[in-house]
Design brief:
The protein is of the alpha+beta class. The protein contains four helices and 13 strands.
Length: about 250
Amino acid sequence: MYTGLINYRDGAPVKTIPAPSDEHLVWPEETAMQVADKQAPLPVDRQIELTMKKFTHTHHQHQTTLGNTLYKPVLVPTLYTALSMGDLATNSSVYGPQTNAYVLKHLDVVDVVINNPELEDHTFHFHGHNVQVIETGPYGNLSTENREPVAHKVSGPWPMWRDTIQVHGFEYIRVRFRADNPGVWFLHCHLAWHEYNGVAVVFVEAPGVQQQRQSVPKEMVEMCKRQGIPTQGNGAGNQGFDLSGLPPAVYPSS
């Protein structure tokens, strides 16, 4: 790391710099680029379709979901639930609806489609995986917006790999990855306040493999205990499907 000191001279002229604007910014066309290793699109085992939904919550705040509900942390961190619930860890219900959990089978190729029916652009980040960008295209109704129509674009024979993707307004994007990294992985909007407000889902990948191969360091367990965070059980810290004790999930119709 390099450090330096900047001195400003008293009376130095001040240069006015125009405010930045992305009005004329040319976004890179992910589907137009190809990877050097010439890896073809992966064959699909499962598809997950996520549609963003904007609504006004009961406290008059505008909210947006990516999954079925607003993502909210539950009482037991999802990783602990995946490691402690045995065979039930393959059932997404044990994690609590607030997590928007999708349980993935080990080594399945997962095709993820994100639909954005609103004007606002969103940048999404995948934890745990890079994904192939397969195609983008129009989604939703453009008739009420003064905006150029969205074109349908399909990648070439060797699609690009990314861990962060841009989903423009009134657009869908299709990406693909192999579930070869057992763990609990977050997919979230990279706009900080969107992430904070719950524009996210969780992929619980191969919980059975996790239980065989992984364990939580005792230092982490002790740290959670000192904070009063339970480290076993379902999302509510109970057994089976008893989720009593969790706050209610917030659905778009709420």
